[in-house]
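Lecture notes, structural biology module. Today: joint structure prediction for complexes of two components.
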Amino acid sequence: MDQQVKDLINNEIKSNEVCLFMKGTPDAPQCGFSMAISNMLKILEVKYKGVNVLADQSLREGIKEFSEWPTIPQLYIKNEFVGGCDIVKEMYENGELKKILEDKEIKFKK
Amino acid sequence: MAMDLKEIEALIKEALPDAQVEIQDLAGDGNHYSATVTSSKFSGKSKIEQHKMVYNSLKGKMGNELHALAIKTKE
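The predicted structure, tokenised, for the full assembly:
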């Protein structure tokens, strides 16, 4: 992976407490899976940065290598990879997502 | 750009021989599947590690030939 892409990813996940690498933007997701996580974060009123991987092909491939995860969306909370759509959805449903947000002291609607 | 259900099942079972695999073709287009994988190999591993084990069993097909595979893992 390009050092420039790696720096860009590191910068995004360090400067945004909650960072979602997604297809499209929070306002206009371009894929159902990206929309699903985006909606969960919106319902929880979590402030997050959506990074549109469709805007940059090297980022789209780079994030897969970076996280060693083959699919998008990918959710990072405080510099840590939390999961893709399936895992985040499961965590949303069983309450684990709220627990992580609480543990990491991220503001959300309880 | 499509994969057969049986092919997915075979790849997962090759990597996780004791796995019980249930696969559904969600849209009937050979491109959107969901898989529930139960294996003792998942024990003691995080969800991320468990899903990575399933992705790894698909040998790079995920995100390429295989567009969408929703995964659920159980110990």
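Point to remember: The domain at 5-74 of chain B is CATH 3.30.300.90 (GMP Synthetase; Chain A, domain 3).
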